Amino acid sequence: MVHPVPPLIVDPALCSKLSIAALRRNLASHATCNRSIIATGTKVEMVERLKKILKTREIDLLTWNTTLNNSVSDHTSSED
To answer: 20 to 30 A Cα–Cα from 69, which one of 21, 30, 40, 79?
Structure first.
């Protein structure tokens, strides 16, 4: 999920502040893209699971943006 919209969150630091319903909603939304994601459990389990997903997402987006920027830079410099 690249561009989640509220009420979904993207900041792992906010996970522990979510209600159980909000945790389930966020996890269920991620599960639509990855069926191995479980959207149930205790609050502690769901917080940890969502934190891990969001931290992985941050790294993936950073890597993707870096790769995209390098690709654009390579194309731009080769045109000079």
So the answer is: 30
Nearest in space to 30 (alpha carbons), one of 53, 58, 64: 53
Burial bucket for residue 12 (CB in 10 Å: 0-12, 13-18, 19+): middle
Alpha-helical segments (H) within 2-42: 20-31
Q: 60: Cβ–Cβ under 8 A, 6 or more apart, which residues?
A: none
Give the residue from 21, 19, 20, 9 showing the smallest Cα distance to 51. Answer: 9
Given this model, what pLDDT does residue 41 score?
98
- Could you tell me the pLDDT band of residue 46, with boundaries at 50, 70 and 90? very high
Residue count of the chain: 80
